[in-house]
């Protein structure tokens, strides 16, 4: 299902946003004195849009009821909900995505070692 794969990107892609949903921005004067934040990547923009799409009530966090129609997201909910408040904030999604990406890269590296003929390496 195309939409469920796109929504999985919310939890599976790397996102590093300067101003996540629900977080107030600094006053304009303070912002003017600090260097500009790096522009968002296409993946970060897409992840933010998908997060907002799932956030049906617009409260800046995902509840179990908002992800219930997506079994893989629902299954990852407890792991992503690091503060155990029964909501997944955008910051928690960022942490989960980094962990997910690191694990995926570790598995790929192990598989590459096995493929290269290193018998000591295991995926």
TrEMBL record:
What is the protein's name according to its record?
Calcium-binding protein
Organism (species): Acidovorax carolinensis
Q: Which domain of life is it from?
A: Bacteria
Q: Please indicate if the UniProt record lists Transferase as a keyword.
A: no
- All copies of domain EF-hand, residue ranges: 42-77
Q: Where is the signal peptide?
A: 1-18
UniProt keywords (A-Z) are: Signal
As one GO molecular function, the record gives: calcium ion binding
């Amino acid at each position: 299902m195309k939409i469920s794969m796109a929504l999985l990107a919310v939890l599976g892609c790397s996102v590093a946003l300067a101003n996540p949903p629900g977080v107030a921005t600094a006053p304009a004067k303070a912002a003017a004195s600090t260097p500009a934040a790096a522009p968002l990547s296409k993946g970060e923009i897409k992840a933010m849009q998908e997060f907002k799409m799932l956030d049906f009530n617009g409260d800046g966090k995902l509840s179990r009821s908002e992800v219930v129609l997506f079994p893989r997201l629902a299954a990852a909910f407890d792991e992503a909900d690091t503060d155990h408040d029964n909501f997944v904030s955008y910051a928690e999604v960022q942490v989960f995505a980094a962990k997910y990406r690191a694990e995926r890269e570790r598995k790929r590296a192990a598989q590459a070692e096995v493929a290269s003929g290193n018998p000591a390496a295991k995926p």
